[in-house]
Amino acid sequence: MPEAASMSAPPAGRHQRRLKNYLLDAHFQLKYSGYLVGIAVLFSVCLGTLLWRTSLAVIAQSAQTVQQGEQVVGRGREVVEESRKVSEVVKMNIVKDPIYSDNPALLEAFKGDADKQDERLKSQQAALEQQAAGLKQQSAAIAVQQRTMLITLTSALTLLCVLIGFAGILVTHKVAGPIFKMKRQIREVGEGHLRIPNKLRRGDELVDFFEAFETMVINLRSRQQGEIDRLEQAIKTLEPKAEPGELDPLYQLRQQMKDALNT
Questions:
Q1: Which of 18, 139, 204, 262 is placed for a possible disulfide with 62 were both Cys, Cβ 3.0 to 4.6 Å?
Q2: What is the reported pLDDT for 107?
Q3: CA 84, CA 86: separation in Å to the nearest integer?
């Protein structure tokens, strides 16, 4: 058949995606990408709110612990001070007591025990103050960690939403690409050009639908070729009987039908 060559699909060539071509159907792609981004934003807000409230509770608990530690340290100071006062009063009374004044060794032993008691109370007071300072440092460190966590979390969730938006565009591109190609081919068929569409790119969706569309175009081409063959047969039959110029409309129709296959 002379038109057999026109029935074969033209070479697909090498398809290359360019950045500007990823938004083939901006309304469709941005719509569904927006849905994905909206879900990601909602998830991010819920997660961020939960972590924020948790961190606030931890900081409040830390502040309460620091306050309690300061109260314990304050009470410890009062105990040490009261103990020192009591010790001083006892020392004064002992010095005046004839029993101790006549026995210097006993007086020195009491003073030694009193000094040891004061040192022990002072060491306990220092330990409490050190613990309170440690609690303050821990509370400050928790506040810094909270700020760092919130900045990191906000940056990570923002980046996640942006990446999901780009991913949505890339995924919908695999659907919008075949639809865009078929819409263009349908317009061409409507204009009378029965060109076999190029193959889809690797990774595109709607493969079955596109193959059904391609089969339709091939069937239309086959029917067109059959009509051309019948028209040529009729022209051959009429040519010996026709006057010059009478078959020109048929010749033009035949050429138009052939052009529809060769485009």
A1: 139
A2: 64
A3: 5
Q: What is the pLDDT of residues 171-210, one digit of tens each?
A: 887 787 788 888 888 888 887 777 777 777 777 777 788 8
| Phi-psi map region of 117: left, alpha, beta (phi>0 left; psi -120 to 50 alpha) | alpha
- Provide mean pLDDT across the span 97-103: 62
pTM of the model: 0.50
**CA-based nearest residue to 27, from 129, 179, 206:** 179
Alpha-carbon torsion (141, 142, 143, 147), positive or negative: positive
CB 80 within 8 A of CB 122: yes
User: How far apart (Å, rounded) are the C-alpha atoms in residues 206 and 177?
Assistant: 10
Cα separations in angstroms, 79 against 87, 129, 167: 12, 14, 67
The owner of tokens 């409309």 is 249
pLDDT of 227 reads 87
Helix, strand, or coil here: 243?
A: coil
| Top-confidence residue, 103 or 48 | 48
